[in-house]
Amino acid sequence: MSFLPVQITYISKENDGLSGAKVNLKGNEVFLASSHFDRQQNISVMKALLKQSLLRVHVEVSAFCNRRCGFCPNTNGSRINNKQLLPETIYLRILQDLQEISYDKLFGFHQYNEPLADRIILTRIAQARKFLPDSPLVIHSNGDYLDRDYLEALADAGLTGLNISIYGPNNGEFIDSYILGRMNALAKKLDLSFEMKIEKPRYRYLQAVEFRSMKVQLMAMNYWDTGYNRGELVEAGPQLKRTSPCFYPFQDLTVDWRGNILPCCNVYPDSPEHTQWVTGNLSDGRSIFEHYADSDLVEWRRNLIRFYPKGSPCESCSRLEHPELASPENINVMDQLANELIKTDQTPFCT
User: Contact, 61 vs 124, CB < 8 A?
Assistant: First the structure.
């Protein structure tokens, strides 16, 4: 087996006071600073850390989902009758905080919900566009509520990306003929001509089209084979013991419909097994900067940057797991970097 080198570039940020390193693991580049691993009290440092690190924000603006896919924790039906919305006060505060740092990276409206089930999403998109004029605004949807008029309204509101997941019958069974038939039917319903980008039978299909200022994609994946086990809640994806570093708590900020801050998109607080992994809640009045830089997310980061076995709920996660990178040289490089950046000892959190 050939091993790819972990690439590390040390950098100094004189303007915002942050220094650290850019680490590239197989094309995934992340900024790491000592401030990621110690709880911060200085709001200027918090803002600089978020601005330098964050690539994606995911906000679950509503709770309801109309499906029960077998590879998703929603298979227990906990979202079927849940019509709750994220409080607008919390949502607007997230946008205001992001506006303060001129955030221009991806902003999404989804987690374990169906965001198009409630047309309040049009207001939420327009609000995000007002506060974040340069951010790509993206939705993942099952497409069940979508028609041509709704598509036009999404474009009017300022959405720039719509990824429509095409699922098979029987709670998501991947059947090629069914998948392709549903893609064709939805394209006809939307009056769009899609171009096939990826065609891998029994594995993945991807069709895409540009519609006004929005990229629309029809996506089908065999999640039974390629998905994640969602923090050990479902039986999907490859079976493995994770050793790779995980940069999710550095690069992503995930908020569920309750205002919970989550360390990862695979954490599902509807399940009693996962409530302990919530790192905070925005109803406490604190900013996203404080929740990112002065919360249990700090402990998660300490435990996730090295090549070594992870504890629950990360123990068997396959998200960006790259066993081919676990060479003695790479293990040593990441250990050395961790020792340089983590100034104080602390018991690993995610175990």
Answer: yes
Residue 137 CA to residue 119 CA, distance in Å, equals 16
**CA nearest neighbour of 61 among 94, 97, 104:** 94
Query: pTM of this prediction?
Result: 0.93
Alpha-helix residue ranges (DSSP H) falling in the chain: 43-53, 88-100, 120-131, 148-157, 169-172, 176-190, 223-226, 248-251, 288-293, 297-304, 328-341
How many Å apart are CA 215 and CA 329, to the nearest integer? Answer: 41
Residue 108: name the closest of 51, 49, 159, 65 by CA: 159
DSSP lists the bridge partners of residue 238 as: none
Strand 252-255 relative to strand 161-165, pairing: unpaired
Tell me the β-bridge partners of 8. Answer: 23
- Secondary structure of residue 211 in the 3-state scheme: strand
pLDDT tens for 45-78 read: 999 999 999 999 999 999 999 999 999 999 887 8
H or E element in which residue 33 lies: strand 28-33
Name, in order, each residue with C-beta under 8 angstroms of 188's C-beta and a sequence gap of 6 or more: none
